[in-house]
Amino acid sequence: MIANLGLLLALVVLITLVLRGTNVILASLIAAVVVALSNGLPVSESLLEHYATGPSGAFTFAGQFFLIFFAGAVFGKVMAEARATTSIAMLFRDLLGRERALWTVMLACALLTYGGVVVFVVIFTIYPLALDLARDANLPKRLIAGAIALGAGTFTMTALPGAPSIHNVIAARGLDTGLFAAPLVGLAAAALMIAFGMFYLERSRRRALAAGEGFDPAPHERLGEDAAGPAQLPGRVRALAPLLLVLAIIIGPRLLGLAGISADAGWLGRTVAFAAAEPVFWPSLALAAGTVLALVLFPRLVGQRMATLGRGTSDAIVPIMSTAAIIGFGGVVIETAGFREFSTLVVDTGLPPLLSAFLSISTVAAITGSASGGLQIFMASLAPTYLERGVDPELLHRIATLASGGFDSLPHCGAIVVMMAIMSLSYRQAYRDIAIVTIVVPVMATLLVLGGLWIFA
What we know:
Layout: H1 2-19, H2 24-38, H3 43-51, H4 58-81, H5 84-96, H6 101-114, H7 119-137, H8 141-153, H9 155-158, H10 166-175, H11 183-210, H12 236-258, H13 266-277, H14 281-297, H15 305-333, H16 337-347, H17 353-368, H18 371-381, H19 383-388, H20 393-404, H21 414-423, H22 427-455
C-alpha cells in the first residue's frame, strides 16, 4: 500500500515541479528518489543503474537514439536559419488564402514535421506567421495553438507511415519492423485525426467569432511579415527541395521493395535491405542528405555554415536529455512491485491484445507525460509479452505509436509546457483546445481503428 502511494506521490511531485517550471531533469531525479525511498529500492542502485544505464535508463535511450535527434535538430536549424521553413509556410498561406488560417498553420506544421523538422523548431518557425494570420482573420491565439498542436504533434508523429519521428523509430527498433509498419492502419488513423481535429477547430472558430472573441496578442508580440521580407526568402521550389529529398530517401526503398526489388538484386537491392534493417541510421542519413543539400542551396548560409550546424547540434541536447530523463524516471518505476502488478493486470485482463496494449501504453505515457518515453518503456517491459502471445509486430508497432500520442499530452507534457511559453498563453486560456486535439482526437482515432481491425479480423 505504501509503495503504491509512493508511486502516486512521485507522479504528483513530477507533474507539480514541471508545471512550476522546474527543469525536467531535476524533477525526474527528485521523483525517482521518491519512488526508490517509498518502494524500498536502494537509492544508489536506482539512480546509477535503473535511472541511468539500465534497459530503460536515460543514457541507454540517449545512446540508442542520439543520432536521429541530432540529425533532426541540425536539419531543422539549417532550414529555419535559411528561412526555408518560413517560405514553405507562406506557400500554404498563398495557396489556401488568409481566411483559412487554421488549415494553413496545420498543414504547414504537418509537412515540416513529416519531413523531419523537429517539433520545437516548427513551433518557433511557424508561430510568427501564424500570429500574423490570426490577426488578419481575427482569430483567438488559443485556436492557432490548437492548429499547431494538431499539425506538429499528432498524426505526423505517430500515424503516418515512413515518418522519421522518434516514436516511429522507437517502435521500429523495439519490434524489428520498419518505419512503414501497417501503413493502411496509419493512414486511416491520420485521416481521422485530421477530420476530427479540423472539425473541432473550425467549429470553435465560428463560435468564437459569433461570441465576439477575437485576436488577442500579448503586449510584447511583434506583428507583421517575416522580418526578412518575402523578397529575401528562398524560392519555394528551392525551399521544398531538401524536405522532398529527405522524404524521397526514406520512401524510395519502400517503393522499390513493393516493386519487387530484393536483396539479391545488386547494389539497389542491398540498399533496400539496408534501409529496412536500419530504422535509426537510415532516416538519420536521409536528414543528413537534406542538410547537405540545404547548405548548398541557400546563399543565406554562406559564411556561417559550421556555426549553423553547431547551433543545430546544441538544439539536439535539450530535447534528447529531457526525454531521456523522463525515461530514466520510468526505468526506476518499472523496477517496483507496483509496476509489475500493473503489467500483469493489464496483460491478463482478457481484453483483445491490441486494446490491452493501447491501455498499457496510454497509462505509461500519461504517467511520464511523454509519448516517446511511454513508448520506450513499453517496448522494454511489455512488448515482448504481446509478441509471445502472437500479436503481429507491424500492427503492434502502429497501435503502439498511436496510443503513445494520446494521454502523453497531460499538463506536465514537456512539449505543451514549451509551446505555452513560446506563444505566451496560460493553461486557462489554451489548454482545453490543445487537449482536445492532442488527447481526445488521437484517442478517438485509435479506438476507431482498433474497432475496425476487430470488425474486419
